[in-house]
Design goal:
Elements: H1 3-26, H2 34-64, H3 68-94, H4 103-122
C-alpha cells in the first residue's frame, strides 16, 4: 500500500471516529445504558488513537520509503480497529453480547501493529 493509502485511511477513520463519537453522545445518550455508552466511548477512543497511528505509518512511509514492517503495522492497526471498535459498535447497537467475543482479536491486531512499529523503529524502518 502507498503512503497516501495509509494517510487516507487514517483520515477516514478519524472522520468516522468524530462522527460516531457525536452520534453516541447525542443520538444514543437516551437509548443506551451508562454501561453501553462507556463501551461506545471506548470504541471511539481506540478508533481515534489508531487513526492517528495510521497517519503516522503513512508519514513514516512517505519519509523512509518502502518498509514491510510499517506496512504490516498499518494492516494491524486498520484491521484491529475494524474488529475491536467495530465489534463494540455492533454490540452496543444490537445488544448481542456474543459480539464481544470478537473484540479481543481486534485488540491483538492492535497490539501486533504497535509491536511491528516498535521493531520498525529499532531497525530504522
Amino acid at each position: 500500500m502507498t503512503p497516501a493509502f495509509w494517510l487516507a485511511l487514517g483520515a477516514v477513520y478519524g472522520f468516522l471516529g468524530v462522527a460516531l463519537g457525536a452520534f453516541g453522545a447525542h443520538a444514543l445518550k437516551t437509548r443506551l445504558s451508562a454501561e453501553l455508552l462507556a463501551v461506545w466511548k471506548t470504541a471511539v477512543e481506540y478508533q481515534m488513537y489508531h487513526a492517528l497511528a495510521l497517519l503516522g505509518v503513512g508519514l513514516l512511509l512517505r519519509q523512509l520509503g518502502t518498509s514491510a514492517l510499517l506496512q504490516w503495522a498499518g494492516a494491524g492497526f486498520a484491521l484491529g480497529v475494524l474488529l475491536f471498535s467495530g465489534s463494540l459498535y455492533a454490540l452496543c447497537l444490537s445488544g448481542v453480547r456474543v459480539l464481544g467475543a470478537i473484540t479481543p482479536f481486534g485488540g491483538m491486531l492492535l497490539l501486533a501493529g504497535w509491536a511491528l512499529l516498535l521493531v520498525a523503529a529499532l531497525r530504522g524502518a
